[in-house]
Amino acid sequence: MHEIQPSQASGSKAARLRELLAGPSVVRAVGAHNGLTAKLVQRAGFEAVWASSFEISASHGLPDASLVTMTQYLDATTTMDATTDIPVIADCDTGFGGPLNVAYTMRCYERAGIAALCIEDKLFPKMNSFADTGQDLLPTEEFALKIKNGKEAQTDPDTLLIARTEALIAGMEVSEALDRAHAYVTAGADAVLVHSKSRRPAEVLEFASRWDSNIPLVAVPTTYSTVTETELYDAGFRLVIYANHGLRAAVKGVQDVLGELSGTDRAQAVEERIVPMADVFALQGMRSAFRTKP
Ligand code: SPV
Ligand code: MG
């Protein structure tokens, strides 16, 4: 079993993420889907961006159901990486196919400089974890082979491959989730994400209490949102992903403002509830784009 090792200071984002994961406090990532939302994540002080398949799919107006292609995901992820200084963790769904697709995905994402990739043990094509259908899993050995192939294709030793088990999402017992996750560690995973749709943190905390590895654990407290980062860290989680809070905030904000605007006859009605253009200019880097020589 291998622990996350701080890198030999290559200065890359992947090396930085390894350092953070080996550090004394929980690493926090937030979901994003484009350059602007990734910048907002960085500005709010989070340590990493989660290039969420749910958010990227939604940004195309599509369900998170393996419809968006690998190159579309990579394009969005590369933009997020280019517009931020913090590591980007790419949600690569099932790895976009079989073991060969995972190896190809690893090569493409590494070439683009992405710090970490996460793949999950659902069947391709997959559905979002909170959908009530399409939660069938690949046999453990087949997913372990995907992890092995991904790791073998890796060239930068700092790149992280996170194995995500959907066993609890599929209604299996904690012991099945543990068996799978331990097999993924043996196959070479650098971290394990155990996803859950429970309203309470009990099952992920039980998973962590029975975790028999130094490989860091990753939590996505979307439904069990009462849990604190401290509780998760103390249980053994080193990375917490707030997967879609920015997108959901944006949908609420746009819906509310446009709803109000459509019921009135002048734009001033919503002025107080929207940011000034100057705030967007700042996010776009307008001043540096148009800086002229003195
Ligand atoms: C995502 O953000 O795309 C995730 C997390 O994979 S979830 O939507 O909970 O499956
Ligand atoms: Mg996803």
Q: Mind explaining what this structure looks like?
A:
With 294 residues, this protein is α/β, with parallel strands linked by helices. Helices cover 42% and strands 13% of the residues. It has helices spanning 13-21, 35-43, 53-59, 70-82, 99-111, 140-153, 174-186, 202-209, 229-235, 245-262, 277-284, 286-289; strands at residues 27-32, 48-51, 88-91, 116-120, 160-165, 191-194, 217-219, 237-242. It has an 8-stranded parallel barrel, surrounded by 10 helices. Strand 7, helix 9 (229-235) and strand 8 (237-242) form a beta-alpha-beta unit. Bound molecules: sulfopyruvate and magnesium ion. Sulfopyruvate is lined by residues 31, 52-54, 64, 91, 128-130, 220, 222, 243-244. The site of sulfopyruvate has 13 residues, from helix 3.
Taking pLDDT < 50 over at least 5 consecutive residues as the criterion, the unreliable ranges are none
Mean pLDDT across every amino acid position? 95
Shape: globular
Helix content: 40-55%
> Which architecture of the largest domain would the CATH scheme give at its second level?
Alpha-Beta Barrel
Which superfamily, in CATH terms, is the homologous superfamily of the largest domain?
Phosphoenolpyruvate-binding domains
The side-by-side strand order for the widest beta sheet comes to 1-2-3-4-5-6-7-8
Helix-strand category: alpha/beta
For the secondary structure, the number of strands is 8
For the record, the count of structural domains works out to: 2
CATH first level of the largest domain: Alpha Beta
Bound molecules: sulfopyruvate, magnesium ion
- Distance linking N and C termini: 58 Å
**Largest beta-sheet characterization:** 8 strands, parallel, barrel
CATH topology of the largest domain: TIM Barrel
Strand content: 5-15%
